[in-house]
Design a protein that fits this description.
Blueprint (H helix, E strand, L loop, with lengths): L10 E2 L1 H6 L6 E5 L9 H8 L6 E2 L22 H10 L9 E5 L5 H12 L5 E4 L2 H7 L25 E2 L1 H9 L4 E3 L3 H4 L17 E2 L15 H12 L4 E3 L6 H11 L6 E2 L2 H16 L5
Parallel strand pairs: 1-5, 2-3, 2-4, 4-5, 6-10, 7-8, 7-9, 9-10
Helix pairs in contact: 4-9, 8-9
Length: 288
């Protein structure tokens, strides 16, 4: 019997992945995506990807269709997600080792990492440095799409990991800390390139997700991340961003630091500001 493969942690290096590139216990998932051009990620995958990598799309696979409320990237239908994961060759028992990567400093790969953890699959990691690190190392890529034998995936949803707007409103009123993971200029309401209203949830603090990374898009050391999160995690914060994507980088950083994951407000600012948009429609103005 083949011994069960164990991940070294929530992230893996290009060296580790290159050594396990063709291990049947490992499924590599390409998560490249662009918010500005939703077809760009799939085109990039078709033009070249890591050998054996499968592709999952943020909009079609890792989110459900946008509704009137719930933000720009609501959680996917879990039964559909289970089927899609199984189609990629991912199984729950024994647990397939999943390694996700992207070319966006881990933003979209972290969404898959968090989703898998949320549904009970702990054998998952993000490729540190992503596509760029793989290319810098001169490691092989391919245009061949290699099908996998279907897996069997069963959900074990983690209670308390996700909060909605009503919960955030209540918890905020009770004084719970909220952490906005977006860029400082969006947090301050100076610019808003995506959502209809600029600003943040009143009282939120800003912990920009990119501050978890170095200049090469690799995560800081566990010690550095522990220091960055030490003040916040003891306050049991709720973490959010624009739509539950880049906040997952902050949650991944918490895991690398060895801390338990904070709850995620998936809808984030894109959900919260819908009430402000309605107020603006009614009153002709809104307070962001």
């Amino acid at each position: 019997m083949t011994p069960e493969l164990t991940l070294p942690g929530p992230i893996v290096s290009v060296d580790w992945l290159s050594q396990h590139l063709h291990d049947p216990q490992v499924v590599i998932v390409d998560c490249r995506f662009s918010l500005a051009d939703p077809t760009q990620g799939r085109r990039a995958y078709d033009a070249g990807h890591l050998p054996t990598a499968q592709y999952l799309d943020l909009n079609r696979d890792l989110s459900s269709p946008v509704q009137a409320q719930g933000g720009r990237h609501p959680l996917p239908d879990l039964s559909a997600l289970a089927q899609r994961l199984a189609a990629c060759g991912i199984s729950s028992h024994p647990a397939t080792v999943v390694v996700a990567y992207d070319d966006a400093q881990g933003a979209f790969a972290a969404r898959l990492w968090w989703l898998l953890r949320y549904v009970g699959h702990t054998s998952v990691a993000v490729l540190d440095g992503g596509w760029q690190a793989w290319q810098r190392a001169g490691l092989p890529t391919t245009t061949t799409v290699m099908p996998r034998l279907p897996g069997q995936f069963q959900m074990q949803v983690q209670p308390g990991w996700v909060v909605d707007r009503t919960t955030v409103q209540h918890q905020r009123a009770q004084g719970r800390v909220l952490i906005d993971s977006r860029a400082p200029e969006r947090f301050r309401g100076e610019v808003e390139p995506i959502d209809p209203i600029a600003g943040t949830i009143p009282g939120a603090a800003n912990v920009f997700w990119k501050t978890m990374l170095d200049d090469h898009g690799c995560f800081l050391s566990p010690d550095a991340l522990r220091e960055r999160w030490a003040t916040w995690v003891v306050q049991d914060p709720i973490v959010f961003c624009g739509s539950g994507v880049t906040a997952c980088v902050n949650l991944l950083a918490q895991a690398i630091a060895g801390y338990p994951l904070s709850p995620l407000y998936v809808g984030g600012w894109s959900d919260w500001c819908t009430t402000l948009t309605k107020a603006a429609d009614t009153d002709g103005k809104a307070d962001a």
